[in-house]
Amino acid sequence: MRIDGLQYANWSEEIFRQMRQGGMDAVHVTIAYHETFRETVLNFEKWNQWFEAFPELIMKGQTAADIDTARATGRTAIFFGFQNPSPIEDDIGLVEILHTLGARFMQLSYNNQSLLATGCYEAEDAGITRMGRQVIKEMNRVGIVVDMSHSADRSTIDAADISERPIAVTHANPFEWQPALRNKKDDVIRAVTENGGMLGFSLYPHHLRKKPNCTAADFCEMIARTADRFGVAHLGIGSDLCQDQLDSVVDWMRRGRWTKEADYGKGSAAAPGFPPMPSWFGDNRDFGNIETGLRAVGMSEDEVAGIMGGNWYRFFASSFGPRGS
Fold first, then answer.
1. What Cα–Cα distance (Å) separates residue 137 from each residue in 30, 81, 144, 161?
2. Distance, CA of 115 to CA of 45 (rounded, Å)
3. Does this model's pTM top 0.90?
4. Across residues 178-184, what is the average pLDDT?
5. Alpha-carbon span 43 to 41, nearest angstrom
6. Among the residues of the chain, which ranges form H helices?
7. Which letter does DSSP use for residue 21 in this model?
8. Is pLDDT of 251 > 90?
9. Which residue from 51, 65, 75, 302 puts its CA 20 to 30 A from 175's CA?
10. In sequence order, what are the residues at sequence separation of 6 or more whose Cβ sits closer than 8 angstroms to the Cβ of residue 168?
């Protein structure tokens, strides 16, 4: 089983076919960064058109059972998520409506302070806000995963402790391995995993040691050492693959409508456009290189199977329905 915890590609028939060639059983895809509720609905509509156009390649995923259906019919199940809480605007009632439409993940902040939590680029981290506590409670009730991939440390730890269901960091790596603002420090990873949550390892070059020159061996060794420290059952892949995206898309991701100035982050990420990917991971057909690399660093078949998809499958199975289901 192969499940990717996050992608944001410039979707096309070619990419859908590559998913099948790579044996991808399920992929969590971003369908909102700074979109309003109505704009997000338009993105759901676009995906409905793709499901209709390519029914032999992809299908809508809403529960873990849909992954079983996808596997049995040779398709990839697509699960929807937001990298910002902008689709709920300032209306907690939209949480349930968006879940009904198919949302299964929502980040509480994207780099900046939101109505719910602090982003990882803010100078001060105030933690989860009053509204954030209420939205987490509602997400727990309906079955939308709290995702803290772009949130600051205190906010992430708060969310892991406040949430009555396990949360996720769908796409990030250990800060100790690569000190990027988006990567997670040990106390953050510990808070997420000890509360039953998941960490998806990112292949986005700014999150990698040696950036595009990171080797498969380096990446897989990092995964193995993280498993030694935090337990293999809470780890998966969240590639953050942005395949075929135009460089101009980075402006929307980072700038949205909140600033008139270019915002390229800080440090190694302070550059326009998408960085080149490592030579061994360019699209969905390359997931086998990770699997091979994990075996090469000494991980068992069960451990490899868990990281490549089994752990995400169990997490999906307990996360997407109403609480108590």
1. 22, 18, 10, 12
2. 27
3. yes
4. 96
5. 5
6. 13-21, 37-53, 64-73, 93-101, 130-142, 153-162, 186-194, 216-230, 248-255, 287-296, 301-305, 311-319
7. H
8. no
9. 302
10. 5, 105, 145, 146, 147, 148, 149, 192, 197, 198, 199, 200, 315
Q: Of 131-140, 258-267, 298-307, 311-320, give the lowest mean pLDDT range.
A: 258-267
User: What is the pLDDT at residue 252?
Assistant: 87
Q: Which two tokens mark 146?
A: 């709290």
* Residues 306, 201 contacting (CB under 8 angstroms): no
Per the listing, tokens 């509480």 go with: 108
Q: What is the pLDDT of residue 265?
A: 59
Instruction: Give the pLDDT of residue 268.
Output: 46
Taken in order of first residue, the domains within the chain and their CATH numbers are 3-109+141-150+168-319 (3.20.20.140)
Cα distance between residue 247 and residue 277, in whole Å: 14
The per-residue pLDDT for range 40-59, each reduced to its tens digit, is 999 999 999 999 999 999 99
SS3 at position 169: strand
8 A C-beta contact, residue 131 and residue 91: no
Residue 179 identity: P
Q: Match 């101009």 to its residue by tokens.
A: 248
pLDDT(207) > 90: yes
